[in-house]
């Protein structure tokens, strides 16, 4: 029987980081404004990094929209982002 892969076994290569996206939605006058209509930076929580030591698991990073690689792993949405595309971060 095939073994189910675990996220811990997923290796990030190059100068990339694996993120869980943070989605925000806002209401204006009772209407929900979808995220796609806003052209603003996005945020994500660092899940795993490659050899990069600047960002750690749990850091919140800010990056521009449309520069990530999106993929699903065991029902969860993740993003892969190049370290050079981070425009700010917050360490908890």
From TrEMBL:
<dbReference type="GO" id="GO:0005524">
    <property type="term" value="F:ATP binding"/>
</dbReference>
<dbReference type="InterPro" id="IPR037124">
    <property type="entry name" value="Chaperonin_GroES_sf"/>
</dbReference>
<dbReference type="Pfam" id="PF00166">
    <property type="entry name" value="Cpn10"/>
</dbReference>
<dbReference type="GO" id="GO:0044183">
    <property type="term" value="F:protein folding chaperone"/>
</dbReference>
<dbReference type="InterPro" id="IPR011032">
    <property type="entry name" value="GroES-like_sf"/>
</dbReference>
<dbReference type="InterPro" id="IPR020818">
    <property type="entry name" value="Chaperonin_GroES"/>
</dbReference>
<keyword id="KW-0143">Chaperone</keyword>
<protein>
    <recommendedName>
        <fullName>10 kDa chaperonin</fullName>
    </recommendedName>
</protein>
